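#structure-requests
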Amino acid sequence: MALQLNTMLPETLEHVCPLPPAPGAVPTLRRQVGRVLAEWNIHPAVTADCLLVVSELLTNAIMHALPPAELRVSWSRGCGLGTLHIEVSDAGPVRPPGQRRAGTDPDEHGRGEGIVHALAARHGIRVHQGRITRWAELVAV
């Protein structure tokens, strides 16, 4: 009797788009990602968390990083679980670490990392080829 291996690979869907360094870019891309997640039939609760993570990562890139920036969202499904991977890559920080943007209220900024940490199963930062990528993963059944 021959052993038969399951060679089915998980399905992966991907959406990539540039982040224009302009006012209104975050809500525009958030709506775009919402439409993509609906097409992918992502559960509404996971979609809500994803859109919040997308907003935080995109806002971080606009407020604190050099362009160009790019958003990448992918959905992989296999073994009964799905993983939604969100990443925003940019050209690195505008200011040296610890230096604040003039006129920013510390009570209005700095919560994004905590929000991403609370919603994501995993998250992190990857430095590569003169770029920085902030990423997060959400898991759904």
